[in-house]
């Protein structure tokens, strides 16, 4: 028996669909999401991204090969040098200043998710860490594709969240998502059933924490 990334999704199908098709996602696609819910999400996502960069640094530390070390380094550079800047610019367009971001209190859902990922990587190996990151890396690409396949989704000027969808449907992002899936397919191919069961638990936990992150936005929870 060899495993692949899609087996993780199949093992957690209910939670995965709840994450991908969450009410926050549907409303965003329809252009009907409350703006304050989106702002709350964007602000917490700034904190999320900072911890996500730390997870790439942990991936570097956990690497056994130069290839894995380079991959982690590229991820860390992309987020610190590029994506954080883009996120700050995007927040400004939504009326959130850099000072607002610097002073943000961290919501419990942000704390739970990010620290779970870091703890999973600390406790386990590079594969555990990548599986904990997979709902984030693969999920957002799948969300953009799911939204584009829905007749209710509004694209273009009629949807204030159009740029958000555009970012995750982009060729660049979709290629990064495929690269992550390929990496996971290669590493999962030779795990034992007992190891696969452990990794399924990690994947399910991280997927459920993504669900909580959407819900935090909807509820403006702190
Ligand atoms: C809660 C939450 N989950 C996933 C993402 C998506 N995401 C964050 S970093 C990254 C990879 C960039 O190198 C991706 C796809 C998000 N923004 N917020």
TrEMBL record:
One of its GO terms (molecular function) is thiaminase activity. The keyword Transcription regulation does not apply. Coiled coil: none annotated. Keywords: Hydrolase, Thiamine biosynthesis. It catalyses: thiamine + H2O = 5-(2-hydroxyethyl)-4-methylthiazole + 4-amino-5-hydroxymethyl-2-methylpyrimidine + H(+); 4-amino-5-aminomethyl-2-methylpyrimidine + H2O = 4-amino-5-hydroxymethyl-2-methylpyrimidine + NH4(+). Residues 16-219 form the Thiaminase-2/PQQC domain. Belongs to the TenA family. Catalyzes an amino-pyrimidine hydrolysis reaction at the C5' of the pyrimidine moiety of thiamine compounds, a reaction that is part of a thiamine salvage pathway. NCBIfam families: salvage_TenA (TIGR04306). This is Aminopyrimidine aminohydrolase. It comes from Alkalispirillum mobile. The lineage of its organism: Bacteria, Pseudomonadati, Pseudomonadota, Gammaproteobacteria, Chromatiales.
């Amino acid at each position: 028996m060899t495993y692949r990334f899609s087996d993780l999704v199949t093992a957690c199908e209910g939670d995965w669909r709840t994450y991908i098709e969450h009410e926050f996602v549907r409303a965003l696609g329809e252009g009907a999401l409350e703006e304050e819910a989106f702002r709350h999400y964007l602000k917490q996502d700034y904190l999320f991204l900072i911890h996500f960069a730390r997870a790439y640094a942990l991936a570097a530390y956990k690497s056994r090969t130069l290839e894995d070390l380079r991959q982690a380094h590229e991820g860390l550079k992309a987020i610190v040098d590029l994506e954080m800047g883009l996120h700050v610019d995007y927040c400004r367009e939504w009326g959130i200043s850099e000072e607002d971001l610097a002073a943000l209190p961290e919501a419990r859902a942000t704390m739970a998710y990010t620290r779970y990922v870091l703890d999973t990587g600390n406790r386990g190996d590079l594969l555990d860490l990548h599986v904990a990151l997979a709902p984030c890396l693969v999920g957002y690409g799948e969300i953009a594709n799911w939204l584009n396949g829905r007749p209710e989704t509004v694209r273009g000027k009629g949807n204030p969240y159009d740029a958000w969808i555009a970012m995750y449907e982009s060729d660049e992002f979709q290629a990064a998502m495929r690269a992550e899936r390929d990496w996971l397919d290669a590493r999962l191919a030779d795990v034992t059933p007992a190891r696969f069961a452990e990794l399924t638990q990690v994947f399910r936990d991280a997927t459920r924490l993504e669900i909580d992150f959407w819900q935090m936005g909807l509820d403006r929870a702190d």
